[in-house]
Design goal:
It is a single chain. It contains 3 helices and 17 strands. The strands form 5 sheets. A 6-stranded antiparallel beta barrel has the order 1-4-6-17-14-7. Strands 8-13-9-10 form a 4-stranded antiparallel beta sheet, with helices on one face. With 241 residues, it is mainly β. The radius of gyration is 22 Å and the shape is elongated. α2 packs antiparallel against α3. It has 2 domains: 158 residues, no CATH class; 70 residues. Bound molecules: zinc ion. Zinc ion binds next to loops.
Length: 241
């Protein structure tokens, strides 16, 4: 929907309330290990990412596109890789901040390594397991394995079907998408508003940011090759039906 007149602050607030996604916002701060733009790979504080995360806050955001200076269009966050995000008024997002759209779901697929009783950790928390397989064998939840309490690992309950320690297995699961802020598109702008009043006044415009799905960003900045592998795996898994 377009909302040309919605830079009247109250209208914008109502729009956010009605169409906004609830998100958990984790503000980023540069880690003290950062030197000349490079993090220390084995840093125990940031695990080599160069950023640490401050206390979480719950906010509402809309996925937005500005067709021109005056029209804000609300969209769904369906794009696989990136979205434009406009938060509720008063929230200023920063570079590398994370947003977890915990009420939205998406599919994610990856490999896990079998340990003694438990698999290695998934990249994102598991809301629901769709498929777990090794070779041609499909494992069943509550028969072969259960999801660990922390929602990141599978605990094997049937010793007879347990993959060998060190084996790789594939998992396709439902999770919530997490985005990271990578650019600020319209951060410090205001418009002269003369609707409904005889005296035009300056209104702070909603801010717009570019956000990327986290797994894509990691691939780009940390390990390009890893991303390509992950995308290939995802395609293969998603077409396996
Ligand atoms: Zn660090």
């Amino acid at each position: 929907m377009a909302a040309g007149a919605s830079f009247i602050p109250e209208n914008f607030d109502a729009l956010i309330e009605k169409h906004g996604y609830k998100a958990i916002w984790k503000p980023a701060i540069v880690c003290e290990c950062m030197e000349e733009g490079q993090p220390y790979i084995h840093c125990p504080l940031c695990h080599g990412s160069g950023y640490r995360y401050l206390a979480k806050k719950r906010i509402r955001v809309v996925s937005s596109s500005f067709t021109n200076e005056q029209a804000l269009t609300i969209q769904g966050i369906n794009e696989p890789g990136q979205a434009y995000i406009t938060p509720e008024r008063g929230v200023i997002l920063g570079y590398r901040d994370k947003l977890d759209f915990y009420e939205t779901t998406c599919k994610h697929s990856q490999t896990l390594t079998m340990g003694r009783k438990q698999t290695s950790s998934t990249y994102r928390p598991i809301v629901q397991v769709s498929y777990v397989m090794e070779g041609e064998h499909i494992y069943e939840e509550n028969v072969d394995f259960v999801i660990d309490e922390g929602r990141h690992r599978l605990n094997w309950i049937d010793d007879a079907t347990k993959p060998r320690e060190g084996d790789k297995i594939s998992i396709l699961y439902i999770t919530s998408p997490e985005y990271v802020i990578t650019d600020m598109m319209h951060e410090f702008r205001s418009v002269r508003n003369n609707r409904g009043t005889t005296t035009p006044y300056a209104v702070e415009m909603p801010k717009q940011y570019l956000a990327k799905r986290l797994e894509f960003v990691y691939g780009e900045t940390v390990n390009r090759k890893k991303e390509e592998t992950k995308e290939e795996e995802t395609k293969e898994e998603l077409s396996y039906e």
